[in-house]
Amino acid sequence: MSVHIRPPAEHVDVLIIGAGLSGIGAAYYLQRDQPGKTYAILEGREAIGGTWDLFRYPGIRSDSDLYTFGYEFKPWLNPKAIADADSILAYLQETAQEYAIDQQIRFRHRVLSANWSSVEARWSVEVERTDSGERLSMTCNWLFSAAGYYRYDEGFTPHFAGIEQYQGQLVHPQHWPENLDYRGKRVLVIGSGATAVTLVPALAEQAAHVTMLQRTPSYVLSMPSEDPLARLLRRLFSTERAYALTRRKNVLISRGIWLLCQKYPKLARRLIRHFNRKALPEGYPVDEHFNPPYNPWEQRLCAVPDGDLFKAITAGTASIVTDHIKSFTAKGVTLRSGRELQADIIITATGLNLQLFGGIRITLDGAAIDMSHKVAFKGMMLDGIPNFAFAVGYTNSSWTLKIGLLCEHFCRLLAYMDQHDHSVCCPQLPAADMPTRPLLDFGAGYVQRAIDMLPRQGPQAPWLMSMNYLDDIRLMRSGPVEDPCLKFSAAGQSASHQPDPTSTASPAPV
């Protein structure tokens, strides 16, 4: 009788979870700033890229310019500032290969759980090989979650009455069928967010007609797909200098637009409406289909490159209906207004499901953690959880701007711990009853559906989930690593010197 003996657990200094935009960025900064540290990247899927490899629906692209969505250390050379998924994925693959990051990635390794041992001052991580079902263990000094914040295996579809009656093809963009044939067919896209406004003009190129059915309008703003100033700067300066200048310019522009929307929402609404009206046919009901009941940037603005959505509407290949679904039928949907929309294919672009840290079960000395009572420290750690960092980018700007600063600060933190012979680092709340508020001040449906299960943020730095790049430069790049709320210790110290793993904060609002 043979006995299977599990091999000894492999140990690394930093274990990164996820080989998407954030995970590759974290690996680069570790290699650059902490070359003596060992690391590995565990990726549950079979390829790098995360979002940009997972989603395969037509027209998928960024809704941020790639001069800010790209890495600060890796110039974006493609002339398209608003780029398609294939171009972004190629950029990520090139980055991983150029810096040999791809050699540190373990594909089809899905992290199931992670337990922090106060005695050993390290994480023990349980991993499943998705290709074979084999289980293995790893240990690390630091656990870095770069898994994003939504579920990769499941998109969100609300309950629709009578959906089982529909006899056509029903598709969620997150699970786009390979070789879906929509040529010459009537397509109905349910939704009004970034995915919907991306799908509609892309499908309209071949479909008989595409209808976007929205319950509530979104703010939609046309952006040039190419940046003329970037093109000029590339002729005048080196690649690196031109990229840095374009990046800085776009940071200031996007920040300016956001501030305008925050300080003068009525003016911002009027300006967006003005641009929409100019891009649409004479007499088009702009207020019915492009005038949301909320202020600009209470939810993310939807960017459309070169006004492609407006062009499809003007050409008559696409249309928008603003109404509520009463019920699905065999041939489409009936609306509250009594109107019926027939479609050969219905696409439910109805959003995402959030999932914290890739769904990993995280415990401290075997005890479960209630993440909804944890508070974010500098937007990258959680109170009471030692040697754990996570990457969540901006919701009001390019995701990667935040990731770069966060990874730099993480490497500075590691250097500080080495200099002072610390093994353990743990944020602790200044007071157990510190008032808190939701982690993300964002009205998007996918955030609001999950807000009660997410960690929280406090009233001021360092407990804020900052969404201000310029403030974060001062805090993360220039500010000190040490903080009165950040507690350090060495492995083997007595329990009285160890971080308190049970610390929680009151969920009382600020």
Automatic annotation (TrEMBL):
Belongs to the FAD-binding monooxygenase family. It comes from the Bacteria. GO terms for molecular function: flavin adenine dinucleotide binding; N,N-dimethylaniline monooxygenase activity; NADP binding. Keywords: FAD, Flavoprotein, Monooxygenase, NADP, Oxidoreductase. It comes from Pseudomonas pohangensis. Residues 489-510 are annotated as: Disordered. Residues 491-510 have a biased composition (Polar residues). InterPro entries: FAD-binding_MO, FAD/NAD-bd_sf, Flavin_mOase-like. The keyword Isomerase does not apply. This is Predicted flavoprotein CzcO associated with the cation diffusion facilitator CzcD. The keyword Iron-sulfur does not apply. Its cofactor is FAD.
